[in-house]
Amino acid sequence: MPVRQLPEQVVNRIAAGEVVERPASVVKELVENAIDAGASRIDVFTDGGGRRRIGITDDGGGMTAKDLSLAVERHATSKLDDEDLLQIRTLGFRGEALPSIGSVARLSITTRHAGEPHAWALNVEGGEKSGIMPAALAHGTRVEVNDLFYATPARLKFLKTDRTEAEAIREVVRRLAMARPEIAFTLAGEERAPVTWAAALPGVAGRLTRLGDILGAEFRSHAIEVHAEREGVVVAGYAAAPALTKANALGQYLFVNGRPVRDKLILGAVRGAYADYLPRDRHPVLALFVTLDPREVDANVHPAKTEVRFRNAGLVRALIVHGLKEGLAREGRRTAANGGESALSSFRPAFTPRPASWDWRQSPSAPMPSFDGAAAPAFAERAQAAFDVGAPSADVRIESQPVGDFVDRPLGAARTQIHETYIVSQTRDGLIIVDQHAAHERIVYERLKASLAANGVQRQILLIPEIVEMDEATVERLLERSEELTSFGLAIESFGPGAVAVRETPSLLGKTNAGGLLRDLSEHMAEWDEALPLERRLMHVAATMACHGSVRAGRRLRPEEMNALLREMEDTPNSGQCNHGRPTYVELKLSDVEKLFGRR
Q: b or e along 381-420 (b: 16 or more beta carbons within 10 Å of the residue's beta carbon)?
């Protein structure tokens, strides 16, 4: 077959396959054009999930008649001052969006420039461009796209339902609205009620306001400010406390120089920063904005501009991890306290309704229910049982100790222990319930990390080595990682086929069950691969050791032990969560408790 030049319409449709993947792609390109035009308000309307109609109206600078005629030609753009692709400061720059859309749909553009006496309009249908016509428009630009993919019917078969496509459009507009809080957005359509995000004030406060409007009040109440800067690279934004998580990573919004992206490097840095706070199956909610010199990032590596490539990827990753860890550590104790609202919802006041015939407005007391003599013993037993609370679960003599010394501390003064698992403490304006195992687990974990960073973990030599029997594959797995285990004070060696001898254990763990510890470690190691950084592997080891070396649930504590644990929590970073991501305590304000009993 001879080589031939493809017709322009076919070329445009091929390009449209890269740029116009679905209706949401059209909305993304057109809204980005409006943002680059300097709009302060952008209205988006869709019908049929965007396949029947998409309308974008903005109050930006608009175009002259000459610019409008050229805008629908391939590779025509106003976003580049010269041919330098390393100085891209706008969202769009390829000049492919409008001609690609016009080649597969019915495109109509009406625009008015400030220097023009009136507006101008242009239509493109299936790649065929009409002439420029006078039109009526106060200012800005209005773009309408009708019958998307009518010129390429095969593409329609790959679209989802109208509701699914409308949700994809909503997500695109949400991301762009997060990136530009100074711009007002309205999203309307037959599939949804109109949503308006008003323009916010510039700066940090305006950004949090916009994020709260989009992600909800719950995110605003859990938001932790993140900021890190070095060598001209700035990482800023807000991350939710570990108390607010999702089952997937769709709640992570990432922006580079104002451009929404889905970058694997940034997502990996987020996972690393939250590794000490969340379970493996939970993901944080956050919005991070990376700002750097355009020459340090390549935004031209993906047709839809959803991916970028950094010149110094290591610096960007390090800043993200540092900024998130610093923010989480700074707000470590506050994060657990946020769980109080959800804890209150778990309380269900139990009461016995009064007889329907009794009216409290007419009688100061309810009539006694009538019962015969045979029922009296059962009633008496039930009444007596209500006062039978059983033996105390902890030494409550703490009441005799001075209370003024500790109630003003952040975690208050220990009052009692219930079910040999939870410590109840009193603060000046409420009460706190502490999970003793989770709290001590975080304390031991932080001690292990600090000891390893300083001069290595101190070891204790066992007088008689403990022999642990396991299957041969597990033994081999442990022995392969023996150097990493030794760095944490756990010295092991082979003791024949299917057995390991434990000769030294970390001093911080005290007397521990070496067999259970090694079995848990082997299970974690089975999930590792060589791509997992050594630092993360060591932290997995430390977390497992901390779990085995902490105060167990079911252990009765003396009052001085409970107070000592509370004081250690106050001095330990990240004490709001254990290293598995569970909260270590819940705080209830006195006002909230009073609401439960109708006092407020």
A: eeeeeeeeeeeeebeeebeeeeeeebeeeebbbbbbbeee
pLDDT computed for residue 374 by the predictor: 42
Tokens at 474, concatenated: 């597990």
What is the distance between the alpha carbons of residues 449 and 443, in angstroms, rounded to a whole number? 10
How sure is the predictor about 472, in pLDDT bands with cuts at 50, 70 and 90? confident
pLDDT for residue 121:
95
The set of residues, in sequence order, having a beta carbon less than 8 Å from that of 378 and lying 6+ positions away, is none
Instruction: Supply φ then ψ for residue 45, to 5 degrees.
Output: -130, 135
d(CA 514, CA 464) in angstroms, rounded, equals 12
3-state helix, strand, coil in the chain (%, to 5): 40, 25, 40
pLDDT band at 549 (very low <50, low <70, confident <90, very high): low
Long-range contacts for 218-225 (Cβ within 8 Å, ≥24 apart)?
A: 218/244, 219/244, 219/285, 221/338, 222/285, 222/335, 222/338, 224/327, 224/328, 224/330, 224/331, 224/335, 225/327
Between CA 318 and CA 533 the distance in angstroms is 14
Please state, in angstroms and rounded to a whole number, the distance separating the CA atoms of residues 267 and 328. 17
- Domain assignments of the chain as residue spans, ordered by start: 8-197, 204-300+309-330, 394-600
Assigned token pair, 398: 């703490």
Residue 410 predicted with pLDDT over 90 = no
CA distance 304 to 20: 9
List phi, psi (to 5°) of 505. -130, 160
User: Alpha helix locations (H) across 112-253?
Assistant: 153-156, 162-179, 204-215, 217-222
Look-up of token digits 């092991």: 492
Tell me the DSSP string of 539-574: HHHHHHHHHHTSPPTT----HHHHHHHHHHHHHSTT
* CATH topology assigned to domain 8-197: Heat Shock Protein 90 (3.30.565)
How many alpha carbons fall within 13 Å on the CB side of residue 22? 17
How many contiguous H segments (helices) and E segments (strands) does the chain have?
A: 20, 25
Q: Which of 54, 37, 36, 35 is nearest to 45 (CA)?
A: 54
At the fourth CATH level, the homologous superfamily of domain 394-600 is MutL, C-terminal domain, dimerisation subdomain (3.30.1540.20)
CATH fold label, 204-300+309-330: Ribosomal Protein S5; domain 2 (3.30.230)
Alpha-carbon distance of 106 to 51, in angstroms, equals 11
| Alpha carbon distance 53, 144 (integer Å) | 7
Is beta strand 119-125 parallel, antiparallel or unpaired with respect to 106-112? antiparallel
pTM of this structure: 0.69
Most confident of 114-118, 143-147, 309-313: 143-147
- Look up residue 452 and give its two tokens: 């390893």
CA angle, 530 then 532 then 537, to 5°: 105
- pLDDT tens across 269-326, in order? 898 888 878 877 788 999 999 999 988 988 776 666 677 888 898 899 999 999 998 9
Q: Quick one: pLDDT at residue 354? A: 46
